[in-house]
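Hi F.,

I've been meaning to write this up properly since the lab meeting, where we talked about keeping a consistent format for the predictions we share between groups. The idea is simple: the sequence comes first, exactly as it goes in, then the C-alpha cells exactly as they come out, then a line or two of notes. No screenshots and no reformatting. I'm using this chain as the first example so we have something concrete to point to.
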Amino acid sequence: MDKFRQLLFSFEGRITRKTFWIYTIIMLVLSVVLAFILSALFGITPFYLFGSIPSYGQPINEEIIQQVMSASRKSEWAWFLSGLVFLIPMAAIYIKRRHDRGATGYEYWVNIAFSTLLSLLGIMGIIYKVEENYGWFEVSETTFGLFLLVIMLIITIYMIILAGFLKGDKGENAYGKDPLEE
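Output, unedited:
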C-alpha cells in the first residue's frame, strides 16, 4: 500500500514508461467514468434534450439555445470536477516519468493551466455557441475556444511524446535510481 501511495501521491523518484502508461490509462478510464456519473447526477443524460430538439427544418428558438448551453455548462462542470479528483495522482505519475529523463515536469502545470482556463470558459459558456446547420442545431466552439483547444492539444501531444515514448536516463540521475535497475 505504501508503494501505491508513493506512486500516486509523491512527486519524488522515477518510473518506467510501462508504469506511466498503465496508470495513465487506468486513471483516464476512471476519470471518464466519473465524469459520466457526475453528468448524470447533474441531470445530463444522453436523452437530456430529446423532447426539446426541434424536428428537421423547424426554427431554433432562444429557449432551446438556453437549454443546450445549460447542458453544455453542466457537462463541463462534470469534466472539470472529474479532472480535479485525478489532478494529484496524474501529476505524480507524469512528473516521476519526466524525472526519469532528468527533467522537472513543469509542463504538466502549464497544461493544467490551459485545461482549467478552457473548463472555466466552458462553464461560463464563452467558448461554445449554438448554430443551425442544415436544419439541425449543433454546439460548436467559438474561434477563441478552438484556438485554446489547439494550443492545449499541441502541449498534450508534446507531453505524451516526452513521457510516454522517450527512454529514461540510464543509471542514477538527480531524481533517483534507474527504475529499470530496481
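Notes:
Helices lie at 2-9, 17-41, 62-85, 87-99, 107-123, 143-164.
The chain has one domain: 2-164.

If this format works for you, I'll send the rest the same way.

G.
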